[in-house]
């Protein structure tokens, strides 16, 4: 293949990955391409598990920057990155390793907010039955309550999509806390910040529903 043909093939693979993650409801402003380097390997000849925590961190910071920019423009985004005033702090993270990754590769990292009622594995259609250990929403609970995020914290799903394997290789679930770095305490970030996050949650779920409906009719 010529250099231009290789570049076009790589572009199409990346485009396919982005489309798949959009259909799964991931926030496009969180998309982060993480190049795998030889030094990411361990003695078992695959990317060391610890590396993924850093990969998800890089994607999470990219996402946090976009949140700050929407909440209050570039100045707010910069303040959140430097821990000035109200920003986010990581409380916990869990990682589910699905397939080993080797060099060379590029991982598309993405995040999306979720509540316990909207949680679903990357391979589960919204509104469907439980699959791969995911939890189905309680159909008796009001829709508004299902989509309601807590005031001081929220869960975020993370995902790593391999361009080389053209599939999801790692997933994560983290708890992010709104934190006042000046007062060193968790806090309510305010109505605007909550509205921004709430809207992104709703938009991600809408994309999932649309993709599921399209797949069902095809």
TrEMBL record:
It comes from the Eukaryota. Pfam families: 4HBT_2. Residues 119-148 are annotated as: Disordered. This is Thioesterase/thiol ester dehydrase-isomerase. It comes from Somion occarium.
């Amino acid at each position: 293949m010529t250099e231009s043909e290789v570049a076009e093939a790589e572009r199409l693979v990346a485009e396919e990955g982005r489309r798949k993650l959009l259909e799964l409801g991931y926030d496009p402003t969180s998309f982060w391409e993480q190049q795998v380097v030889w030094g990411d390997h361990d003695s078992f000849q695959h990317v060391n598990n610890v590396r993924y925590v850093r990969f998800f961190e890089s994607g999470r910071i990219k996402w946090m920057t976009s949140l700050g920019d929407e909440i209050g423009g570039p100045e707010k985004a910069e303040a959140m990155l430097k821990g000035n005033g109200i920003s986010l702090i990581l409380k916990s993270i869990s990682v589910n390793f699905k397939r080993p990754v080797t060099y060379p590769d590029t991982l598309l990292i993405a995040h999306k907010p979720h509540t316990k009622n909207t949680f679903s594995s990357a391979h589960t259609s919204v509104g469907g039955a439980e699959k791969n250990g995911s939890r189905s929403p309680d159909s008796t609970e009001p829709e508004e309550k299902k989509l309601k995020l807590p005031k001081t914290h929220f869960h975020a799903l993370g995902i790593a999509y391999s361009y080389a394997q053209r599939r999801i290789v790692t997933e994560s679930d983290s708890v992010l806390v709104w934190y006042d770095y000046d007062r060193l305490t968790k806090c309510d970030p305010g109505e605007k910040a909550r509205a921004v996050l709430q809207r992104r949650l709703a938009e991600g779920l809408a994309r999932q529903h649309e993709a599921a409906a399209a797949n069902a009719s095809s």
